[in-house]
Amino acid sequence: MRKLVYLWNMDLQEGKDKFIQAWGTLGSHWGINRTMAQVHALLLISANPLCAETIMSELQISRGNANMNIRALIDWGLVFKELKPGERKEFFVAEKDMWEVIRQVIVQRKKKELEPIIKVLNEVGQIESETGPDVEEFEKVIRDISLFATKADSTLDSLIKADQHWFVGTFMKMIK
Amino acid sequence: MRKLVYLWNMDLQEGKDKFIQAWGTLGSHWGINRTMAQVHALLLISANPLCAETIMSELQISRGNANMNIRALIDWGLVFKELKPGERKEFFVAEKDMWEVIRQVIVQRKKKELEPIIKVLNEVGQIESETGPDVEEFEKVIRDISLFATKADSTLDSLIKADQHWFVGTFMKMIK
DNA sequence: CTCAACTTTCAAATACTTTTGAAAGTTGGC
DNA sequence: GCCAACTTTCAAAAGTATTTGAAAGTTGAG
């Protein structure tokens, strides 16, 4: 009997660890650093808010690292601070609605990636010059990409505003 | 007069450099390393195919670096080899259709990111165990994410198959 | 005001990624 | 077969990003 309980614990823990690892890897492809994504994963699969101390020991990371990444997650709107009455320390919960998670990631990446490239495209599109095959090719490529970037920008704005029902209903049906 | 010509050259060169830098930064957020994206940018804005030597000197990079990144771009389907009759060395041209570029990036990232997480989700969703709040929360989160991941998977498959007209026409109108 | 409990900061250390360049490999033409 | 022109490889070096931990900062309770 003792052995059975032990094996069951291992299975859940193993599953959690596997998920935390995988979420960390996925995050690192999405502008979220590995540890930041692992903290998010840990909070996602936790039934209760966790404090910094617990996060540090579960993920085997330092205090500074935990603090920095928790703050970054709060900035991204993926984690919220929760204060328990009578307790001095802070507890944290993850945004668990996947649609909301995606939206926040889109907002952040749009700001950090799309907006800067649109700015550069506008700047370099303004070259006053003689004609020539090089200039023409350059300007054509810049025009094409600008068009694309502008479309992507408004598409993302719409996605950010859209709610999940709209997305899952209308969009999913449409692409089938 | 000499001065005017010189200034005009500087402007085009400046524009090209700015664009190459920006495309490099953008690429590094998209699983394409900085140099790889810069090589792609250089080829994008070039009116003619370029050889390794030219790429090396324009971007000030080593032979090995140039070679590795050109090969990677070819693997991703973003650059094509072109042989000029009578010339021994290889020349390269970029995929210039932005829609095709995006499609290739989606294909690669789906393979490297979405498919592995779906595999892990299926594995960890199989835990046989007693009930308890921890297990329930874990399984609920995994189920939610699985659902989402499966939807994303089929959405991306459709996008990959879709052509630009469909996308720009139907999709863009829809989200307005 | 003071203390203890907690959070934040940041310079140095570590880990990870990319780049270099020289040597090895390949290939077409003679 | 042999050479010269070109491409590929890969171990070491350089460059980036992340992590640590100890010290400084903050804050509520007494």
Architecture overview:
Two copies of one chain form a homodimer. By secondary structure, chain A is mainly α. Chain A has two domains: 2-94, Orthogonal Bundle (Arc Repressor Mutant, subunit A); 98-175. Helix content of chain A is 72%, strand content 7%. The N and C termini of chain A lie far apart (51 Å). The mean pLDDT of chain A is 88. The structure holds a DNA duplex (30 and 30 nucleotides).
Short description:
Chain A is mainly alpha-helical and 176 residues long.
How do the helices and strands line up, and which of them pair or pack?
The structure is a homodimer of 176-residue chains.
Chain A: H1 2-28, H2 34-44, E1 50-51, H3 52-59, H4 63-75, E2 79-83, E3 90-94, H5 98-124, H6 133-161, H7 164-175
Antiparallel strand pairs in A: 1-3, 2-3
The structure holds a DNA duplex (30 and 30 nucleotides).
Question: What can be said about the biggest beta sheet of chain A?
Answer: 3 strands, antiparallel
Tell me the CATH superfamily of the largest domain in chain A: Winged helix-like DNA-binding domain superfamily/Winged helix DNA-binding domain
* Average pLDDT figure of chain A: 88
N/C terminus separation of chain A: 51 Å
- Sheet with most strands: strand arrangement of chain A: 1-3-2
Bulk shape of chain A: elongated
The Rg value of chain A, from CA coordinates, equals: 23 Å
List the helices and strands of chain A in order: HHEHHEEHHH
Corresponding CATH architecture of the largest domain in chain A: Orthogonal Bundle
